[in-house]
Amino acid sequence: SWNCNTISALYQLQTRIHSSLITMNLPKYNHNLTFCAHLGQKPSPEDELEERYLLDSIQWPGPPPRFATPSLRQSSDPVHSVFTILPNKERQEWHIGDQLEALVQIRDFQGRPKRYGGDFLLARLHSPELGAAVAGTVVDHRNGIYSALFPLLWVGPAQVEITLVHSSEAVAVLKHLREYRPDRVFFKSLFRLGFLSETTVCNMCLPSDQHLLCNYTDLYTGEPWYCYKPKMLSCDTRINHAKGGYLKHLLTNNEALLFQRFVVFYT
């Protein structure tokens, strides 16, 4: 004798209960890069070549191996860092169409020049008076020195602004999280058959030594996707998909210090 509103309210309540409990039973990932290597389809030679090209194109320099444990005192500090606008090689002044170059020297919190690259810098040339701005190109020389190149597009005053978004040490921490904690963003799916429903964790990669898996890998593209199999329901009773949330407290205290609010230094 239940009406549709009653059933809908019960369903929403049950979904909220499952959502609140799901974070309590997240899988413990092994800290290696091979626990999901056996999942998904073997890529074709063309796909392997494309994957290698994409990985090479986003390759980012990082600290030497001895800096595996980040130290704030040895990380990049914008307060101690400096940059210099290099003189025009052709003439004493700049014209529209010329290129302005600034040389950036990154130093650590002890004021010592950095000897390796990997810092995430943003460069901007702007004129508050004219309301004009242009983004610069940053070249990492991988020795603590960077070149910021700007096209000159207007006549009048201009300011160079360099922003340290992340130090090379912070970038290394983000890379470690990307490679070793694929579960930092987790998803969930609801399985339902009649009045019986279960919610399980889903992701591109799940360790299979804890629970049985439901394989939803795309047969055409080979894109992997897995959910933990419900205890009482079959894999074909899956009815929806949603983001479960973000795992917290993945950083150590020393690593968290590397992600303080960025500082802008300009001239």
UniProtKB/TrEMBL annotation:
InterPro entries, alphabetized: Ig_E-set, NXPH/NXPE
Protein name stated in the entry: NXPE family member 3
PANTHER family: NXPE FAMILY MEMBER, NXPE FAMILY MEMBER 3
Highest taxon above the source species: Eukaryota
Pfam families listed in its UniProt record: Neurexophilin
